[in-house]
Amino acid sequence: MQKLIVVSIDAMIYEDLAYVKQLPNIYALMKKSALVKRVRSIYPTLTYPCHATMRTGCWPSRHGVVNNTAMIPGCLEPKWQWYNDILRCTDLFDACKAAGLTTAAVGWPTTGKHPSIDYLVDEVAGLKVKTYEAFHGYYTDSGTPEELYQAVIEPNIHLRAGGADDVRAFNTAAACDIIRKYKPDLLMLHLGDPDHARHVHGVYGREVYDALKNMDAKIGDICSALRDAGIWECTNIVLTADHGQLDTTRVIKPNVLLADAGFIRVGENGQFLDWDAWCQDVGMSALVYLKDPEDRQLRNAVKVLFEEKIQNGDCGISGVRTAEEAALDGLAEGFSLVLDTDGHTAFKVDWTGDYMVFHADGALRGSHGFHPDFGPRPFFMGCGPAFRPGAMLEHADLIDGAPTYAAVLGCALPDAQGKALKDLLI
Question: Domains of the chain by range and CATH?
Answer without folding.
Answer: 3-245+374-424 (3.40.720.10), 249-363 (3.30.1360)
